[in-house]
Target: Reverse transcriptase domain-containing protein
Amino acid sequence: MNKSIVYTDHSALKYLFAKKDAKARLLCWILLLQEFDFKVIDTRGAKNYAADHLSRLENPYENIFDPKEINETFPLEYLNKVAHKDPSTPWFADLANYHARNFIIKGMTSQQKQKFFKDARHYFWDDPYLFRTYADPIIRRCVADKEAIDILNACHSGPTGEHYGANYTAKKVFDSGFYWPSIYKDAFELVKRCDSCQRQ
Model:
């Protein structure tokens, strides 16, 4: 392979090869660059005609788009939505973001992070749903809001018209393969509001 010549104004590159006792991060770069046979020639930016010419090329798309003004006046309700968690966001949004996109919310304390990662071990993402695992072999899909209430109502009312108690309703939800953190609380609230159950 022929020796290549690199013309650059990046003088630190020459320094990198001359340094004898480099840190581990720089050693990685040195080892990577040693695989290639090249010579570095330091050239000032104005004397490096090819790079200088490329940096001065006109942008052909410069005047195609109309400049738009940025509206910086936000109604108070939008500012409040940014400052506080939006109530329409499902309870599992942070876990789903972590498993689907490896995204972690900022601003957590060390205890909150520790709890978050401890909880996150029990969940996994299979597009487009988040699932929760337990010791039993049933993998439960995480649900929220209207879907959770619909599932709870379906499990509470039996096919022949009978109505189950709160604990049995919650157990039926679990056995059906669904999960949300307040299943028992929601089941007790449903039974408390159910007219048929209260008459028995």
